[in-house]
Every structure is written in structure tokens, then in C-alpha cells.
Amino acid sequence: MQLAHYIGLLHRAEDALASALREIAEAHADEHDIAHICRMLAGQCEGHVERLAPFAERYREEADEEPERLHSELFRGRRQGGLGLLRDLHDLYLMAAECDVAWTMIGQAAQGARDTELFAVVTACEGETATQLKWLRTRMRAAAPQALVVAE
Amino acid sequence: MNDRIADPWGPRTPYGPSAPGADDAVWPERVDTLLEEGVAEDDVEAWTRAASILHSNGDAMDIAARGGRIVGVRGRADDRVNRGRLGPKDLYGWQANRSADRLTAPLIRKGGELVETDWDTAMERIVAHSKELLSQPGGWGRFGFYTSGQLFSEEYYTLGVIGKAGIGTPHMDGNTRLCTATAAATLKASFGTDGQPGSYTDVDHCDAIALWGHNVAETQTVLWARMLDRRRGPNPPRMLVVDPRRTPAAKEADLHLAVRNGTNQALMNALLHLVIADGRYDERYVREHTIGFERLRTTVADHPPERAAEICGVPESQIREAAELLGTSRRLLSTVLQGFYQSNQATAAGCQVNNLHLIRGMIGRPGAGVLQMNGQPTAQNTRETGADGDLPGLRNWENPDHIRELAELWNVDPMTIPHWAAPTHAMQIFRYAEQGSVKLLWISATNPAVSLPDLPRIRRILAKAGLMVVVQDLYLTETARFADVVLPAATWGEKLGTFTNADRTLHLCDKAVEPPGQARSDLDIFLDYARRMDLRNASGGPLITWHDPESAFEAWKECSRGRPCDQTGITYARLRSEGGIQWPCTDPSEPGAERLYSDGRFNTDPEYCETYGHDLTTGAVDSAEDYRAKEPHGRAFLHAEPYRPGPELTGPQYPLLLTTGRTVYHFHTRTKTGRTPQLREAAPDAWLEISAEDAEELGVIEGDPVWVESERGSVLVRARVSGIRKGVVFMPFHYGYWDHGTAGPDGGRPRAANELTVTSWDPVSKQPHFKVAAVRVTKATQTHGGDIFESDFGTARGGSPVLAGPAAGGTTDVEED
Ligand code: SF4
């Protein structure tokens, strides 16, 4: 069974997203809404990591070697200014999208594996991830015209 | 007349229904008059119709004029709002109009100094800069307009069209963002569009009144007089107050929940928990007229009263008592203001009040009303006409049909109207100015250098090189001192226009006297700007096709047609002959709608609604598809949200929680009330309210000078030991520096509460958190403050007339502009 790999993938993706959110909150501390909400969302991601941990454990025994190139890396450090902020949010969006898709896969797998506990965790968490995406989109849409057209 | 400084509410005229549930109560008249010394009623040459501009109640009055000057005011007995009464600010405040320091000529900055000039020079400086900014790509994004809650509909609408259809900028907001943005946000979120469901006459018919973070006794004294008169008459309503301070309203209440500030949502969830658990909701109404009950039920299930008791710092028994009061009333009137709006989880907590009314079916009938209050007299107008972060006519920026309607009405390309995202909110406009992409900031009738959070930062922004600041005001305010161009404006009594109060009542305000010197009405200034900018529509004609207040009102009425705030049945003539008329009013022979949603049908149809909704935690915008999928079919939305701690928490460094607000003697940033002898004398200086226990721990006694410090800054004020709850301190937030001749402390004694407050806002309404800053208090000593310790303190008088007296937990809440 390959499920462990995807749980591992999601586990690491949520963990990476949490750190990226915290880093961006730091880096853009003058964007007060972004700093505040990013910290709150980082807390959510950390919660996801915690809830996934027992399943990572449970399925690891049944797993083969992890295939190469399953993991991608998106966030490579913060940027500055209005354009930098937009690009940072854009990265966060892609990272959250990775989590979002992984939740869907794992939700499907949890049903296939008849693992109701895992399925319950997926149901509880994937909504938060969806809202994270929606918020990032909202914030980027508002920021883009000023950052791309107006600011020098 | 009695001394209305000592007794802000005046004598009682008790009344009430003849039997519980009867609808026959009529609030008796009581006409309040104040004329200048030596002037008798017979000496008055002209009485001119007006309404209050110093709070949102909408008190109707007449202005007395003699020899070309205002000599007094008199309440209008025939008006539905006040039945002749006036508050202390209305009675005394008009004197500020003729203050010796009114601006009478435009000023421009030359060699670092503001010097007098003429209108042509001042306007041409603004226009030349505007044209230059507009000529580059993205020029629209270099303009920011920051207005007020004190202009007239005609003025807001004109400015809204200039900004949104002429320049095409989304960067327009008003100080109503600091004041009533959450009221609008909760009304839209729950009911589909802005607009109060209730009416002030609900006070006449209700059997319970709940004041949610609303210190009505000080913010709307006449509405409070109505409530007090009910309380003294037959079949009086019970009263619940939620406020960390022991306000006059809290003292009157049967039950006062002195919650720790920032915890309203925890309290509301527990109250809804109990109301639902005890089956005290209207199952049929919920089923037929609402969406979201299951989610609400499961969310509040996690918030039992014992949990809220701990979070809020109030006894569980009081929460149960409150739920009992709310759950057993048959006609509940709720009013909500800054204690909710300027606090943590503002929109979520405000929506919970709407939820309470929805699940109990307490909406749209006499006595069962919700008033998501406004603080400023014309706050509703900015929202209706679109000079703030809304589109005119309560239109939805995400609905292409609504944008098309506006484009047709204005005869412009729909692409011109900025609708790619929600209009930019005030804090973001200032952020763009800070970053340098906004290069012209036009500020009308408001004073952000005192009223915005974290003043040291705001002063840095206003002083920034490369930012042209235009200030349009009556006086050289703290903000005007930063301006590159200052435009002298006419005010209430010197110009003509209409405005809407919190219960949707329109009043006309006529011109009683000429403005001083070269001062001009805000409408004339905006019209002049549009003309000089040569703003054109798609056919090449002038964009602005009106030229005076009445033609502007007619244009605005067209824009309101078919929308919830439809005013097409209202005319100047009607307002002059009938007095206050509530919107919607589409028929010239009909009186206007007293209450909304009487049929249980809400404005939530996707084609009609003003918003497709938000996630209340993050402010993430829902899409049109998300919204349609809910199939609202005219049902209201029940929103649910768990409690989350606020943005700034106390700790060892800053152990006290600061709440700020206004009191009965001042308004706005004291621009007018500070220039009114009686009001200034009544509250000449800022102060800090502190509980007896905290004071004792700090070795502070009544009247001691204290330093109050936060991460942002510090103030030096006198302490007043009051009935506030332990752990919480309060400061009135409208004390600035103009009367010291400066724009900020400048090495003098800092005293503006917003030196301390945090830059942070509600994710949905974007209203700043003025009520939750962490601070420390220390007794001031000679060495601590150096020279400024000796500088002029006012006396420690002032503020709430009934502050004294102990309380278990104090409270508060107030407002700001
Ligand atoms: S004092 Fe408060 S409620 Fe009043 S106008 Fe100012 S912000 Fe609004």
C-alpha cells in the first residue's frame, strides 16, 4: 500500500506551509492583516500536522520505499515590497493548493482503506485548507492591481 | 431649562403600553430649546429646519438665526425620532460654528509653511497634481479619498461618482470605517443588504432591551431618554447591558455583564447555546426564513456557559440569567455599537446578535428590532451613496449586472468602475500612502491624526515626502497641519443637504446662515474639482450633470431606484413639510417603511444582495457560485464562529487591557465639541479610568498623573478610580493637540489614546480594534516625565457624569470617529 507516501507528503507539505506562513508573517509585519492571519493559519497547519502524525505512523509499516520526486519545494525564502508580498502570497497559495489536493487524495484513499478515523480527520481539516486558499486568493486579488500597475 | 451638562438626558416623560403587548404607547413630546443669552424666542428672525450632526440619532431641530448668525436651537416636537428633545451636544454644539479660529480662506504650503491663498490657486495646485498623476499608467491608483461620517448625501454621492466613475479609483473610504463598518458588515452578512431592520419606535413596544457594547446613554442621549421614559412608565421593558465599564446604561440595567474586552463572541456563543438548548427559539421561523441553523447549533454546542464565564470573566449565573431574559422576552430590542464593533471578532459577534433575533423570530414587528447602530450622523449615507468602501445604492461589486447599472446611469465604460476587488478600506489606503503608491490623499471633514490607531505611525505617513495631503475642514485640525493644501469648508447650518440616521430616517438640513469668509460647502468644492478636472462621460459630456444640492439629490435618487434604499418617493419639499421619512420610500404619497423584513423575506437573492459573503475568520470572499449554491431564496443567513482570542493579549510587560471610547461631552476628535464652552468645560482633558484594586496595587489615587504605555507609544493623563472591571483601563480617545497649537505631542504631554492603540482590524468589516490594546500603567513622578510633567493638565473632571461608584466589573464601550 502506497498511502503512507501521500500521508508523508501531506505531512511535510503542511509542515512546510506552517513555517512559510510564520516566515511571511515576520517578513511582512507591516501588513498587519496578513501578519495576523498568517499566524492564525500557521496554527491551523500545525494542528493538521499533529492530527496526521498517528496515521503516518500507522501506515508506514505497510509502505514500500518512497518513490523519488514525490516532494516538490516551492517556498525559497521571503521577498520584499508590494510585488514581493504578492509573490510570497502566490507561493503560499501553491503550497496550500498542494495540501488541498493531497487532502482529496488521502480522503479517497481513506475511504478505499475503510479507515473512518482518517476520513474524519480529512473531513475536519480539508475545509480549513480550502478557506486558506480562498483567503489567499482574496488577498492577492485585492493587492495585484496596486502592486502590478500602480507601484513603481 | 435645566443644566444639561449635569443632566444630559433632561426630565422624564414616562410612557408605555396600556397592557403588556399592547401597541398603543406614544412617546410624549418634550421640546428642548437653547437660545443665546439675551435672545428670546420673539427675537429670532428665522427658524431653519435641521437635524443633529453630532451623533447618529438624527434628532430633528430648528436652527434659530438672528442678524445673520446662529443664536440657538429648538427640538422639533413633530418628528418621529426625538419628539422635540435634544442632547447636550445638540443644545450647545452650534456655538463651534462661529469659533474665532474657523478657516476662512484656502491655505497652501510654501517654503514649509501654510499660507493663505485664493480658491483658484489652491484648486489649481490640486488639479495640476491630479492630472499629472492620472496621466501615467495606473494613475487611478495614486489617489486616495478619505472622508467622513458628517457630510450630506449629495456631497458623498458627488464625490463617489468623481472617484469611482471619473478617476476610477477603489481607494475611497470614510472614517465610518472606524465607526460603523461592522454594522454594515453584519447587516449584509445576515440579511443580504445594508439597512436596519428595526425602528426607534421599537423602544415604545418592546418588553426587553439588550445593549450590546452600546453606551447609549452617552452616545445617543435622546434614544436613551426614550428608553428611560419606558423604564419609568407602565409595563417597562427589562434591560441587559454588556460592557466592561460601569456606564450609565449599565447602572440602569437589570443585568450588567461586565465582560473582559475582546471576548464578546465567547459570550454570544454561550447565550445562543443556552437559548437553543432550552428550546427557546422559533422552530418554524428558523425553518422557513433562515439558512445555517445546524452549523450554528453545533458551533455553539462547544461553548457552554461555564466556558464563557471563564473566558469573559463574569459569573456563569449571570450568563444564565441573561439567556433567560433574552429567551423569555416576547419583543426584544437589541442595539449594538462600538463595544462589539471595535473589538475582537467584531463581525462574528455582531452577527450573533442578528442570529439571536432570527432564531427567535424577533424581527420586522413592533418591539422586535435590531439596531446595528451608527456612531456618526451621516454614516449611513456614505454606505448608501458609495463614498466609503461600498458601491452606491447598496450594490454588489462582484455582481456584473450591478456594475453595468452604474455604468449606464453614469454613462461610462464599466471598466472604469473599479470592481476587481472590494473597495480599499481606510487602513489599506494609509498603507499604500506609507509605501508610496498613493500620492494624493484627500481628507474631508475628518481628523485621522487623532482618530486612527497608532498615531506615531499615522503622523509619519501624513508627513511623508512625495505625498500630497489635501485637507478640507472647518479648522486647522491636527491633520490639517500636515496638509499641502487646506480647503475651508462650510458646515451644518451653512449649507443644504440631506442625511439618514441609524433607523433609516432621512432629514433635510437647510441653510440658516452664510459660511464665514471664503468657506464653501463640500458639495461646491467637489463640483469645482470635477469641473476643473474636466471629467467626462462616454459621450464626451460632463460626468457630473448636477450643480446644486437639490439636483444632486435628484441624481442620487435615480441611483437608489430599485435598490433597498430606494428614495425616489422623497423630495426636498416633502422633507420640509413632513420632517423625517424612512427609506425605502418609492411613492410620493406614502410615508416610508417603518421596519424591514416584516414578511420574513430577506434581500438575499443572488441578483439583489449586496455581498456574496465572507469567511468570518479570515475575511476570504465567497464566490458568486458558492453563494448561488446555498440557494438562499430570500432566507437570512445564520453565521457561526468559534471564539478566538484577540490580536493583542496582555502579558508581564503590558498587563492591562485598554479600552477606549467617547463620552457624552465630546464628539469626533473634539473639533467642534472642544470649541463649545460648556462641553469643553465639562471634560477639558483626557483621563484614565482604572479599577480601585488595580489603582491600589499601583499606589495610584484619584487625580494622580499616570503614564500609560503600550508597544506603540505612551500618554500622560490623570487617573480616575472608577467602576471599571479589574484588569481593564479606559481612556476617552478624542483628545488631541490642536488646542496646544500642534499636530502631535511634539515633546509636550502626549494625551491621545490612539498613541497606544494597535494597528489591527476585523477581517470582514476592516474596522480597527480600538478596544483591545495591552498597556502598562505607572504613577508619574518628577523624574519620569521631565519637563512635560509640569505642563498644563486640565482638571480631572469630565467624562461620564455617573462614573463614580464601585462595581464588580466595569465596562464599556464607546466610539470614535
Ligand atoms: S464617536 Fe464613535 S461612533 Fe461616534 S462617530 Fe466617532 S467612531 Fe463613530
Automatic annotation (TrEMBL), chain A:
Protein name, UniProt field: Molybdopterin oxidoreductase
Organism: Spinactinospora alkalitolerans
Automatic annotation (TrEMBL), chain B:
Domain of life: Bacteria
Protein name: Anaerobic selenocysteine-containing dehydrogenase
Coiled-coil ranges per UniProt: none
Region of interest: Disordered: 1-24, 788-817
InterPro entries membership: Asp_de-COase-like_dom_sf, MoPterin_dinucl-bd_dom, Mopterin_OxRdtase, Mopterin_OxRdtase_4Fe-4S_dom, Mopterin_OxRdtase_prok_CS, Prok_molybdopt-oxidoreductase
Lineage, opening ranks: Bacteria, Bacillati, Actinomycetota, Actinomycetes, Streptosporangiales
One Gene Ontology MF term: metal ion binding
4Fe-4S Mo/W bis-MGD-type domain boundaries: 45-101
Keywords associated with the record: 4Fe-4S, Iron, Iron-sulfur, Metal-binding
PROSITE patterns, A to Z: 4FE4S_MOW_BIS_MGD, MOLYBDOPTERIN_PROK_2
